[in-house]
Amino acid sequence: MHLIQGSTRGLGLLLDLNWDRAFFGAAIAAALSAGAFVASL
């Protein structure tokens, strides 16, 4: 049980530290998708 709690806490810490990187990746993917949509018109 301690292992599960520790890994969950570690995963939460990892997400807290790197949420901006995930947001940056999602913003790039959204921009590429929007560009492809506009180019297909």
Automatic annotation (TrEMBL):
Keywords: Membrane, Transmembrane, Transmembrane helix. The keyword Transmembrane applies. The chain crosses the membrane at residues 22-39. This is ABC transporter permease. It comes from Sulfitobacter dubius.
